[in-house]
Predict the structure.
Amino acid sequence: MSLKFEKSKYKNDFVSKIVVIGDAAVGKTSLISKYTQGTFNQNYIKTIGAQFSRYDKEVQFEEGLIIYRLLFWDIAGQDDFRFMRPTFYNGANGCIVVYDLTREETLEDVIVWYTELTEFCGDIPAVLFGNKVDLLKDPKDYDDSRVNEIIKNSGISDFYMTSAKTGAHLIEAFNSIIDILLHEMIED
């Protein structure tokens, strides 16, 4: 795919804030850590308020290589921090909604999270990660009919079954939201 742009015009403009939301203990922090640092911490550490990570991704175009700076805002899933969320959502360009494939109630809460996102951010690109695929007996047996229904009735564009522990489908999943955001930036 060829995307035309004047390199000098966009030199400092390739920055996106991506909020990562979902219930507590679904693996948001672990997913970001695995993607940005290649590490996985076996021990659960609760996020207090929000945690911030920066990742510089090299993107090759016909005109040359650019650095796309991604700012991941890992927003705590506990209700105790609900009052802080509007501040954390401010300025978001995209979103990753995460749920735990082994805890059905976290899938149902995706609707709550997505509604909250649109309340504070409007219609921004969002992708759904079903995390902890490594804990399923057989991922092929996972019934994704409810996931498809949620996607159909929301603005969520894609769904990926991921594992922060093994890295399964992680690059593909993160690249999905990154590609959407990059396309939007270049088309503007």
User: Anything to note?
Assistant: The two ends are 17 Å apart (CA to CA). The first strand starts at residue 15 and ends at 21. The longest helix spans residues 104-121.
